[in-house]
Amino acid sequence: MQSTKPVIFTSEISWWLFGAAIALFAGMCVWILVIDAKVLLFASPALLLSAWVYYDIFTGTRYTIDGDILHIKCGVFINDRIKISNIRSIARSRSCLSSAALSTDRIMLRVVRRDKILISPRHRAEFIRILLKINPDIEVAPGLIDN
User: Phi, psi (5° rounding) for residue 89?
Assistant: First the structure.
């Protein structure tokens, strides 16, 4: 098989989800200041770590197709590899379960010997078309690539 350059798709982002994360973080800072500004000095390391984790998740969630492997990366928490030949179906999902997806407009991959995997690639139709070139046996729910 001819080696090809990896294709990277970033995650689609639900901006309300991003806004909620920022509001939660800002609320924690205000709450600490209201309790006692001196506490902020001791809480700063935890707040900086939290800010770094949020930043890493929102800038580092991506899906890379490299040969027959789909790499799923979400911050420091998820670094998964899936054989594309093991993907059986793709369907639309609005699940709010924790996953490597920054949007609630997701797709669900059903993979042999694994649970379902929820992701939200930007340019979803192109993403699915590339997966189908590698594994034409994937069942795709109607309306996902019929743009």
Answer: -155, 160
Tell which residue, 99, 134, 104, 129, has the closest CA to residue 114.
99
pTM of the model: 0.83
* Distance separating alpha carbons of residues 33 and 27, to the nearest angstrom: 10
Name the strand (E) or helix (H) holding 128: helix 124-134
Residues 6+ apart with CB under 8 A from 73: 60, 61, 62, 63, 64, 79, 80, 100
* Per-residue pLDDT reduced to its tens digit, 20-59: 888 988 888 888 778 777 777 778 888 888 889 888 988 8
Q: Which residues face 71 on adjacent strands?
A: 64, 81
> Which residues make Cβ contacts (< 8 Å) with residue 37, sequence separation at least 6?
none
Look up tokens 């649970």; give the residue: 115
Backbone angles phi, psi at 29, to 5 degrees: -65, -45
Distance CA 91, CA 95 (A): 12
